[in-house]
Amino acid sequence: MINRIYFVFLTIFLFCSISLLAQEEVKQEEIPKPDPLFVRATIWPTANLSRYDYNNDVDLYEIRAYVELRNRTPIGDVMDNAQVYVHSQALTFKDDHYEKRIKISQDSLPEELELRIETQDGRKFSNIFPIPAWLILLNPRPDIVDSSQDLAITWKYTRYAAPVNVHAYNFKTGNKICEKNDLSTFSLKLPADKLPESTIVRIWVIQSWLYKRFLRDPLVARGSEVILIPWSQVFIRAK
After folding, report:
1. Is the pLDDT of residue 5 over 70?
2. What is the b/e burial string over 121-145, where b = at least 16 CB atoms within 10 angstroms of the residue's CB?
3. Which of 27, 78, 144, 211 holds its CA 20 to 30 A away from the CA of 12?
4. pTM of the predicted model as reported, rounded to 2 decimal places
5. Residue-wise pLDDT tens digits, 52-84
6. Residue 237: exposure state from Cβ atoms within 10 A (0-12, 13-18, ≥19)
7. 202, 215 contact by CB (below 8 A)
């Protein structure tokens, strides 16, 4: 008799335990997994010998950071309420992306950067990626130059060299002066007959191809990427 009662209680206990486990599994299955984030970060290591005029913002070095966050895919809904940091600096949401120009010391140009993202629902993502090189104009320096003489344009890479595109135009009129692409050298001569008189000339060099690194993390969607494009610019005044 006692064994029969014990068997009944044991059966009821096991039945209840199995029911509770089954309910717990259902609850766990009902918890939706958060959508992965699609991340596209475009980073411009920027060496300004000057900006807007030959004597404006001389030797201003910047990390220009632009980060796009979307749900699941490149065409998903824009996520505008996250906290995004590049090089420990908080980016500001604008239109459909986050952005910031981060001033960098010329004497300590970083060779790597951290991208960190925190969402309101508690998701956190961080990734450190390398900056293969900074591209820096050496000449001309921001100055008043003689437009009757040829102008030497030179540049350098801090580490790994790559082909560059060289552009120059009349900053007042917008007319193109020079455009050379895929140069594997480190210098270019701009003939005097190409230089206009009594104006401001903007010259910039930009790497011909970009660095790209795909991000791998359970929180980010496939195809998420970091793109790096080194460049440098200078303004001169032609007399």
Report:
1. no
2. eebebebebebbbbbbbeebebeeb
3. 27
4. 0.83
5. 999 999 999 999 999 999 999 999 899 999 999
6. middle
7. no
